[in-house]
Amino acid sequence: MRDTLLITGAAQRVGLFCALALQQQGYQVIISYRTRHAAVAELEAAGVMCLQADLTDLSSLSSFIDEVKRHCLKLRAIIHNASAWQKDLPLIATDGLTTLAQLQQDATVFDAMSHIHARAAYLLNRALLPLLQAYVSDLDQSQQDSEMPCKMADIIHLTDFVATVGSEKHQAYAASKAAVENLTFSLARQLAPTIKVNAIAPALLMFNQGDDDSYRQKALAKSLLGVAPGADEVLATINYLLQSRYITGRVLPLDGGRQLRLP
Ligand SMILES: NC(=O)C1=CN([C@@H]2O[C@H](COP(=O)(O)OP(=O)(O)OC[C@H]3O[C@@H](n4cnc5c(N)ncnc54)[C@H](OP(=O)(O)O)[C@@H]3O)[C@@H](O)[C@H]2O)C=CC1
Ligand SMILES: Nc1nc2c(c(=O)[nH]1)N=C([C@H](O)[C@@H](O)CO)CN2
């Protein structure tokens, strides 16, 4: 029987790469997708269970959780990958009163970032915790009889290098990722010793379509290693965390030495 992993937001880019690779490795992968990109058909053909959800809409999230529970009694891991990289709105220089409309517009950005990163993870972890606990308590006979180490489950949050240093143009995004890192610490304390809770904090991994050469050069120059490593780096780190029996409550940086790059 395959162990089941859940990866959110895996219909493109990092999540898609990891979902296909982990399915190929022998896991049964369940993913969430918001937009049915063409890659969803590829995932389904590979045997991945693909469930549609807007993780910031509570009704959609609730239906998604129920659908996961209908298809799966035990979860080996939850990987919170879904994300939106949204810029803050331009500051409006005015000596006049701040209008309600301005506040509402800024609040829309902040709510979007906190809902997809921090609230979705908080709610999914709480709702699906029984499935992680079912996995770790389901010892097969050999484990009951022998000194075999007990089963462990994992929660892995994708955060960001900027969660610790901030971002001038993505302040709401960075703050929401920092909240997820703090959630990592709380859950690691609550769920030890059988469920490990960690975060992966990349800096530049892969560019977006439309990133021009000037942007790409500037972004690459921010780290010591000067590369955009791609999704392989995240897959390797997920596998490292899944096989570990002694890492929890940690944020693993994947940043090419960016923290040492002097301005
Ligand atoms: N790419 C990079 O260089 C870096 C990435 N990271 C982090 O790594 C992870 C993967 O990055 P990347 O692959 O670029 O991510 P993407 O920007 O490609 O987003 C991943 C997925 O999240 C989904 N998503 C967004 N909002 C919602 C929502 N409301 N409900 C459900 N799903 C939603 C998107 O769905 P849809 O397709 O419908 O929009 C998208 O497919 C992210 O957490 C990111 O913050 C951190 C640092 C650098
Ligand atoms: N959800 C996303 N988060 C982030 C992305 C992205 O494309 N989607 N990209 C970055 C950048 O690569 C940044 O690290 C360097 O410009 C950050 N987060």
UniProtKB/TrEMBL annotation:
GO MF annotations in UniProt: dihydrofolate reductase activity
Enzyme superclass (EC): oxidoreductase
Keyword terms: NADP, One-carbon metabolism, Oxidoreductase
Highest rank taxon of the organism: Bacteria
Family designation: Belongs to the short-chain dehydrogenases/reductases (SDR) family. FolM subfamily.
Known function: Catalyzes the reduction of dihydromonapterin to tetrahydromonapterin. Also has lower activity with dihydrofolate.
Name of the molecule in the record: Dihydromonapterin reductase
Species this chain originates from: Rheinheimera riviphila
Lineage: Bacteria, Pseudomonadati, Pseudomonadota, Gammaproteobacteria, Chromatiales
